[in-house]
Amino acid sequence: MARTESNEFKTGTKAPDFSLKNSIDDKNYSLNDLKGDKGTVIMFICNHCPFVIHVNEELVKIANEYQQKGINFIAISSNDVDNYPKDAPHLMKELAAKEKYTFPYLYDDTQEVAKAYDAACTPDFYVFDTDLKSVYHGQLDDSRPGNGKSVTGFDLRTSLNNILTLKNPLENQKPSVGCGIKWK
Residue 18 sits in which domain range? Predict the structure, then answer.
């Protein structure tokens, strides 16, 4: 399993806009359609990555908890489905149902959105405040497949709590680690 770290995304950077099709309902949505009242989490994930599979259950728990507090979640898959057919939109829809995603699972067919965010791996987490300015980019927590650490969502939860309590962004933002995005 190849390990790729996320690229730097500076705090304060405005979220690049997009319009993508949601694999769950086959409708197009823009970032403005989906952003939260108090914050927005954009996560680059995919169906087959062991790092994503490892954290899926906790992602759903965190989304369920924080969506009720005004923070919306947006999942995006940008993988090349010609060479990685397990990440095709119809299978994204199946996975979203199986995992009980309460957030859209968008497909970035052209990979332009992943490039705009300089996304490098799955999972890759970006947190934005109410003005869609970046306050966090990094890991969910210290857990990785096989390292024996529990999946807690500590880093992501801390950044979301900081938004809700109007605290400054985390100073120590550790990069996410996962499978590299499968570029065309």
Answer: 4-180
The one-character DSSP state at 157 is H
In 10 A of CB 57, how many CB atoms?
Answer: 12
Q: Are 137 and 126 in contact (CB under 8 A)?
A: yes
Complete edge-to-edge strand list for the sheet that includes strand 177-180:
4-5, 177-180, 121-122
Q: Whole-structure pTM over 0.85, yes or no? A: yes
129, 35 contact by CB (below 8 A): no
CATH number for the domain including 154? 3.40.30.10
- Two tokens, residue 97: 């149902």
What would the two tokens of residue 96 be? 């979203």
Q: What is the pLDDT of residues 75-94, one digit of tens each?
A: 999 999 999 999 999 999 99
